[in-house]
Amino acid sequence: MFRAVLSDSNILRNSIPIIAEIIDEAVFTVDQNGISLLSPDRTMVSVVDFKILSSAFEEFKVEGRETIGLNMANFSSVLKRAGSGRMVLESGKSKLLVKIAGKGTRTFELPLIDVKVEKPPIEQLSFAATVEMNSDVFEEGIADAELIGDAILLEAGEGSFKMAAKGETSSAELRIKAGEGGLLNINAQQAVKAQYPLDYLKKMIKASKLSPQILVEFGSDYPMRISFKAIDKMQLSFVLAPRVSEE
User: Fold this and answer.
1) Is the residue at 32 inside a domain?
2) CA 113, CA 69: separation in Å to the nearest integer?
3) Pair 130, 229 in one domain
4) What are the backbone dihedrals phi and psi of residue 45, each rounded to the nearest 5 degrees, phi first?
5) Which residue, among 55, 5, 59, 53, has the nearest Cα to 30 in the 3D structure?
6) Within-domain flag for 118
7) Domain CATH for 188
8) What is the pLDDT along the chain (247 residues), one digit of tens a residue?
9) Distance between CA atoms of 55 and 7, rounded to whole angstroms?
10) Is the domain of 145 the same as that of 229?
11) How do strand 46-53 and strand 34-40 relate by DSSP bridges?
């Protein structure tokens, strides 16, 4: 049994609907550290890693460790009905209660479901390049690439980062250097490049509303991880498999 009170429900309202676009069922772990979720999508192309710290809650009580399986579309639909005010989450034997304060108190009951999820070994990932930049700049690069094709090429080198897409007759490119254009920091052990599917990235980048900065980690023809963080509140990361070039 647990009880968690959020004074500002935006942490959930702005994250769960994004996650629900990628995974349809999820197991949340609730313990003294907070609420977390680690799950691949059904195609095993991407992984969602989500944490809300206990310090983000106005009130947080849990007995030991608890796991909660939910249908993400149902959970997302309930959260979309909430405003930005107070929200209470309480677990029962077979249901999750979501109480939303506003003009009166609305209570939703969501059934807990049995979800089998294999934990992906993302702790084994080691990235050759890390890029910290403004989220809106990365979002612009994704939007530009969408006009051209279904994949985006990322390149990182000494002090510069490039996002590019190429079609049969057209192309798009965003190149920025450290200290300009919203590129805050870059660390590349070597020149690296990799291509990733845009259909996933255009869903993931919606999380830019959670944080003004994004951390991008990747390697040559290697998975990438993008992370959004709100200090002392939450972190949402996505791992995405590369689209390996046949060249």
Assistant:
1) yes
2) 5
3) yes
4) -90, -30
5) 53
6) no
7) 3.70.10.10
8) 899 999 988 889 999 999 999 999 999 999 999 999 999 999 899 999 999 999 999 999 998 899 999 999 999 999 988 877 789 999 988 999 999 987 788 899 999 999 887 888 888 999 999 999 999 999 999 999 999 999 999 999 988 999 999 988 999 999 999 877 789 999 997 899 999 999 999 999 999 999 999 999 999 999 999 999 998 899 999 999 998 765 4
9) 12
10) yes
11) antiparallel
Residues with Cβ < 8 Å from 6, sequence gap 6 or more?
A: 12, 56, 57, 58, 86, 87, 88, 89
State the Cα–Cα distance between residues 172 and 200, nearest whole angstrom: 19
Which of 87, 111, 135 is a domain's end point?
A: 111
Q: Which residues contact 30 (CB under 8 A, 6 or more apart)?
A: 2, 4, 62, 65, 66, 67, 68, 91
Q: What is the identity of the amino acid at 208?
A: S
Residue span of the structural domain in which 181 resides: 125-240
What's the DSSP call for residue 47?
E
Domain final position from 84, 111, 138: 111
| DSSP letter assigned to residue 122 | G
Q: Which residues pair with 127 in a beta bridge?
A: none
